[in-house]
C-alpha cells in the first residue's frame, strides 16, 4: 500500500464528516463539528495550512555530500525525527465508528513507537478514555504522552495518578480545551487556569509537563512562570476559537521570547509534510505535532497506514534537509526559509 491507496481505503471507513482529502487543508470539512472542522466559519484551520504553505525553503547544494540524520532527543529520549502524532479525542464521533478512542490509541501508540516516534493521546468525559490511553502507553514502555484536559483540581489529580502508573516520559495539558463545550458545562467548574493553579498542577507532576495551546507571547511567558518544561504553540486546530492567528504567524515571536529559558517549543496546526516540518524547525521549533492526517492514516490502513505516513514525512524531511544543506537537525537554521512578501 502507498499513501494514495491509503487515502482511498480511508474514505471507505472514516465516516461521513471527514473526506480523507488528498490535501488536509481544512477546506472540505470547514466548520463541520461533529467532524474534523474548525469553529465558527472554519477560518483558523484553513489559515494554519495556508500560512505554512506560504513559507518557502532556500535550496543550497554547495555543501558536503554527507548522510542526513533526522534524529532528535526530547526529555532524554531519542526519536527518529522531531515529529509526534497529536492527541485526538472522540474519534468515533468525529471520524466514524470503525474505531473508538481505546482501539485508536492502542494502534497509534504501538505504530508510532515501532517506527521511532511517539504519540500524544487524548482525553474525554468518559474516564475509560484516559484509563485505556495510559494502559496503552504502559504497553509501549512509556513512549507516549497522555494529554489531560483542564478539569477541576480533583479530576486532574485522579488523571495524574493514571499518568504516573503508565510510565509516560512526559505529560501534556491542552489548556486551550477550556473552549470546548463539555468543559464549559462541567461541575465542578473546569477550564481556564490561573498561573498559580497551573503551577500547582505542574509542581505535583513527577515527569516533564507540556502546556499545549499557547498562541501568544504573553501565554508563553505565563507557561514559563508556571514551570512548564515545554509548550506547544497551538490553536487547537481552530476548534476552540474562530479567527485566531495561525501557528506559523506567531511561532517566531514566541521562539524569540523563549530563547535561553531551556523550555522546549513544539508546534502544530496545518503542518502536513516533511517540508512543513523543516520550515517549523528552521523557525525555531524543537518538535512538531501532527494530528488529523494520522487519523486518516490509521483509518486507511491501521498500523501499516500509520507507518506509511511516518515514512512519508521522514522521507520528505530528509530530502528537504539534504537540498538545503542541513545534515542534522541542529544544522537547520533560520536562513533556510524565506517568508512571502
Automatic annotation (TrEMBL):
Glyoxylate binds at residue 239. Residues 37-341 form the FMN hydroxy acid dehydrogenase domain. The keyword Oxidoreductase applies. Keywords: Flavoprotein, FMN, Oxidoreductase. The keyword Oxidoreductase applies. FMN binds at residues 212, 234, 236, 268-272. It catalyses: (S)-lactate + O2 = pyruvate + H2O2. This is L-lactate oxidase. It comes from Lachnotalea glycerini.
